């Protein structure tokens, strides 16, 4: 079962790369921003509860999809980029065995 779930996450990660390729950003933006959602881990400096809440917010696919769809509806490429990066990062983390806290 773990293999199937990780395979799905891998396919969604590849899909995020495809979605990124549809935007008009240089290729290096994707790898440069891919680890930005880990900034949510800074909440652990305050407490484990705060850290877990912030981590979950920055790694929630629903929030990522909302950002991407907002960008699509508003034709704002920066919101689309944020949504794709957050989505891709969440998929990458789960593909590697990390999940929500």
Topology:
Layout: H1 2-21, H2 29-33, H3 48-58, H4 61-73, H5 77-95
What does this structure look like?
- By secondary structure, the chain is mostly helical.
- The protein is 67% helix and 0% strand.
- The longest helix has 20 residues, at 2-21.
- The protein is globular, with a radius of gyration of 14 Å.
- It starts with a helix and ends in a 6-residue tail after the last helix.
- The mean pLDDT is 94.
Please bin the fraction of helical residues: 55-70%
Span from first to last CA?
Answer: 20 Å
Q: Which consecutive residue ranges, at least 5 long each, have pLDDT under 50?
A: none
User: H/E series, N to C?
Assistant: HHHHH
Count of alpha/pi helices: 5
Quick synopsis:
The protein has five helices and no strands.
Features:
mainly alpha, 67% helix, 5 helices, 101 residues
């Amino acid at each position: 079962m773990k293999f199937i779930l990780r395979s799905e996450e891998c396919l969604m990660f590849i899909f995020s790369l495809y979605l990124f390729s549809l935007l008009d950003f240089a290729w290096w933006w994707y790898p440069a921003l891919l680890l930005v959602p880990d900034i949510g881990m800074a909440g652990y400096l305050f407490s484990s509860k705060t850290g877990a809440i912030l981590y979950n917010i920055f790694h929630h696919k629903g929030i990522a999809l909302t950002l991407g769809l907002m960008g699509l509806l508003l034709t704002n490429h920066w919101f689309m980029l944020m949504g794709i990066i957050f989505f891709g990062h969440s998929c990458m983390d789960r593909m590697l065995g990390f999940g929500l806290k």
